[in-house]
Write a structure and sequence with these properties.
- This protein has 416 residues and is of the alpha+beta class.
- It has 11 helices and 22 strands.
- The chain has 2 domains: 174 residues, DNA methylase specificity domains (Adenine-n6-DNA-methyltransferase TaqI, Chain A, domain 2, Alpha-Beta Complex); 149 residues, Adenine-n6-DNA-methyltransferase TaqI, Chain A, domain 2 (Alpha-Beta Complex).
- The strands form 7 sheets. A 4-stranded antiparallel beta sheet has the order 2-9-6-7. A 4-stranded mixed beta sheet has the order 4-3-8-5.
- The longest helix is centred in the middle third of the chain and has 44 residues.
- It is elongated and about 80 Å long.
- It starts with 14 loop residues before the first strand and ends in a 7-residue tail after the last helix.
Length: 416
C-alpha cells in the first residue's frame, strides 16, 4: 500500500505514543581504553561497525570484541539485553541508517543508543523496522557533528498497533527482507562476476603459452614521448579547456571515463605542450597502491583535451598498437612489475617516467596486436553492457527495503 506522498490516518486500534513510553531508551558506555579489559573477554562489546544497513542485520550475534569482569566492575558498563534495538547516536554514522537487534546480551559503545521493548507493549522487530524509517539527523542537536540526546530520542512519536498486529506485520516484513537479501546477494554476485571478467580476458591473452612466447621490449624502447601532465592551481579551474584528471581513469576498463570532466584555463604554449591525441596512453602516476600505473587509452572523444600532472602521457611508435598496449598495461604480467617499482607513502603510491620506461612489455607483430585489441574491445563492450544491467538490478534491489517499510509506516502524520 503505497502512500504516494499522501497523508493517511492510523488504522483502527493503532495509537500514537512517545518512544520512551513504549520502550526503554538508553546510551552506551565509553569503551575501556586499556588492553587488559579485552583479555579473556566474556561480554560482547558492540561498536558502530558491527551494525548492518536497513533490512540486512536484524539479529547481531557475531561481535568482534568482548570485555572481561574487570571492565564491568571498574568502568561501569551498562548491559544491553538480547532483543535491544541499537543505532548510532553520534558522529557521521548517524547518516548511514545503520540499525541492528542484539541476538545476545552485550555492552554498547558510547556512540550507540539502545531501545529495549516493554513486554506486552512493543516488539523488538517493530521498533527495529520503525527506526529504520527515521532519518536521525533530523533529531540531531549539532549539524557540524551530529549527535542525539537520549531525552529527545525518547520523545519521538511512534505508531503503536496492538501487539498481535505488530507480530503479524513484523513477521511479514522479516520474510520479505529475507527474500530481498537473497535477491541482493544474487545481484551482487552478478556485478562481481562482471567486474572480474576483464582480468580473466587479459589472463587468457597475456598469460597464455602464445603470449609468454612473444618477444619482450622495454616500454621506453617503443615510446616517443613519456611526459608528466600540467599542474594548475585552484584559481584556474572552473572554466576554459577540457581537463583530464586521474579520476577519469576508469578502474574497470582501459577506456577513459569522461562523464565528469573538469575545465581549466590555459596560458601561453600550454595547449600545444599538453594537448592529447587519439592513441595516447594516460597512466596514473600517483594513486593508491592498487591503482597506481592504471592506464587508459585516449580515444577520439578526448582528442585536444589536456591532462593533469597526476598523469603520465605515453605516445608510442607506429610499430605498436596503442589500444593493445593500454590493455596489456592492466595484465598481471605488467601490474606485477609496476607494483614492484612503485614507491609507497602514507595512503598512496607513485611511479615516475623512468620507472615506466623500464617496464617490459610483450610485442607480437602489429597485425596480431590489432586483432587482439579489437577482440578484447568487443568483449569489453559486452561485459560493460551486462555489468551495467547488473548494477541497475542491484540498485533496484537496494531500494526495496525502503519501499517495503514505506508501505507499512509511510504517510502517517504524527501528533504535534
Amino acid at each position: 500500500m503505497s502512500t504516494n506522498g499522501r497523508k493517511r490516518p492510523l488504522p483502527a486500534g493503532w495509537r500514537w505514543a512517545r518512544l520512551g513510553e513504549v520502550a526503554r531508551v538508553f546510551s552506551g558506555s565509553a569503551a575501556p581504553q586499556e588492553r587488559r579489559f579485552f583479555l579473556d573477554g566474556k561480554y560482547p562489546f558492540v561498536r558502530v561497525s558491527d551494525l548492518g544497513l536497513v533490512g540486512r542485520s536484524t539479529r547481531l550475534t557475531h561481535i568482534r570484541d568482548s570485555v572481561n569482569d574487570s571492565a564491568v566492575k571498574e568502568v561501569g558498563l551498562v548491559l544491553a539485553r538480547a532483543g535491544t534495538v541499537i543505532f548510532p547516536k553520534s558522529g557521521a554514522a548517524i547518516t548511514t541508517n545503520s540499525r541492528g537487534i542484539l541476538g545476545i546480551d552485550a555492552f554498547l559503545v558510547s556512540h550507540l543508543a539502545g531501545v529495549t521493548a516493554l513486554e506486552g507493549i512493543t516488539l523488538p522487530e517493530w521498533l527495529y523496522f520503525w527506526l529504520c524509517t527515521l532519518d536521525m539527523t533530523a533529531y540531531s542537536d549539532n549539524p557540524g557533528y551530529p549527535s542525539l540526546r537520549i531525552s529527545r530520542v525518547a520523545s519521538i512519536p511512534i505508531p503503536v498497533p496492538p501487539i498481535n498486529e505488530q507480530r503479524r506485520v513484523a513477521a511479514r516484513l522479516l520474510q520479505q527482507m529475507a527474500q530481498v537479501e537473497s535477491m541482493r546477494q544474487a545481484a551482487r554476485a552478478q556485478v562481481e562476476a562482471g567486474e572480474a571478467l576483464p582480468a580473466a580476458f587479459l589472463r587468457q591473452v597475456f598469460e597464455s603459452e602464445e603470449g609468454k612466447a612473444w618477444p619482450k621490449v622495454g616500454l621506453g624502447d617503443v615510446a616517443h614521448v613519456v611526459q608528466n601532465g600540467i599542474y594548475k592551481s585552484a584559481e584556474y579551474y572552473g572554466r576554459g579547456h577540457p581537463f583530464v584528471r586521474m579520476y577519469n581513469i576508469d578502474n574497470a576498463s582501459w577506456n577513459l571515463n569522461l562523464d565528469e570532466l573538469a575545465q581549466v584555463r590555459l596560458e601561453g604554449h600550454e595547449l600545444e605542450t599538453y594537448e592529447l591525441r587519439t592513441g595516447d596512453l594516460l597512466i596514473s602516476r600517483v594513486n593508491s597502491f592498487e591503482l597506481v600505473g592504471k592506464t587508459a587509452w585516449v580515444g577520439p572523444d578526448a582528442e585536444g583535451h589536456v591532462f593533469e600532472n597526476m598523469l603520465i602521457r605515453v605516445r608510442l611508435a607506429d610499430s605498436v598498437d596503442s589500444l593493445f598496449m593500454a590493455q596489456q598495461m592492466g595484465a598481471h604480467t605488467v601490474r606485477g612489475q609496476i607494483e614492484g617499482l612503485a614507491r609507497r607513502a602514507i595512503g598512496q603510491a607513485s611511479i615516475n617516467s623512468q620507472d615506466l620506461r623500464s617496464v617490459q612489455i610483450a610485442l607480437p607483430p602489429l597485425g596480431e596486436q590489432r586483432r587482439i585489441a579489437a577482440l578484447l574491445n568487443k568483449r569489453m563492450a559486452l561485459v560493460t553492457k551486462v555489468a551495467q544491467t547488473a548494477r541497475v538490478q542491484l540498485e533496484a534491489v537496494n531500494a526495496l527495503p525502503g519501499a517495503l517499510l514505506e508501505d507499512v509506516f509511510g504517510g502517517f502524520e504524527p501528533p504535534p
